[in-house]
Design goal:
The chain is of the alpha+beta class. Helix content is 27%, strand content 27%. It has four helices and eight strands. It has a four-stranded antiparallel β-sheet with strand order 2-3-1-4, with helices on both faces. Strands 6-7-5-8 form a four-stranded antiparallel β-sheet. The protein is globular.
Length: 179
């Protein structure tokens, strides 16, 4: 099975520093194969024969905590799951100088269409859509300061998600496909 591990909150603002080369070796010690990291924000693609996702997550989280000395929660996504997200997002939604498009990957306990009720939006300025396993948000950069989505920060929901921009998600899908 091919997965991407999306680590939450690493290498942000100088906190929870996780060196990607060391992370790669840590996961290879778990007998994960074709391990590769992508950028410095905690994205790791790999292959494994393991099929029990929750057990695999626990195993990886324990290994990271043992290696780095702090707990790092994560979610796993398959190629099919990333493809479902990228297929559901218009190609015109990008992260660049004029637009911001983020994917909020949800932990299983938060993964429900009802999660949309927990996120405030201003429909005239921003888009928010639910795709199983994720919320996708888009706004023009000129309006980003007016967004209500930022109110998620510090909420209970915020502790049950990890965010990547859509460009990164598209690249991770391609990396998984190439394994």
């Amino acid at each position: 099975m091919r997965y991407v591990a999306l680590l939450r909150g690493v290498n942000v603002g100088g906190n929870a520093k996780v060196e990607m080369a060391r992370l790669k070796v840590c996961l290879e010690r778990l007998r994960l194969t074709s391990v590769a990291t992508y950028i410095n924000s905690g994205n790791v693609v790999f292959e494994t024969r393991a099929t029990a996702r929750a057990r695999l997550i626990g195993k990886i989280e324990r290994a990271i905590e043992g290696e780095f000395g702090f707990r790092v929660p994560l979610v796993l996504r398959t190629l099919d799951e990333l493809a479902r997200v990228t297929k559901s997002v218009p190609r015109t939604w990008v992260t660049d100088q004029r637009m911001r498009s983020d994917v909020m990957f949800l932990w299983p306990d938060a993964d429900s269409r009802s999660v949309l009720r927990q996120v405030q939006v201003q429909p005239q300025l921003e888009d928010l859509k639910y795709i199983p396993g994720a919320l996708v948000w888009r706004i023009d950069r000129a309006d980003a300061g007016k967004s209500k989505v930022r109110t998620v920060i510090g909420s209970d929901l915020y502790k049950q998600l990890t965010i990547r921009n859509i460009n990164t998600v598209r690249k991770l899908k391609e990396l998984l496909r190439a394994l």
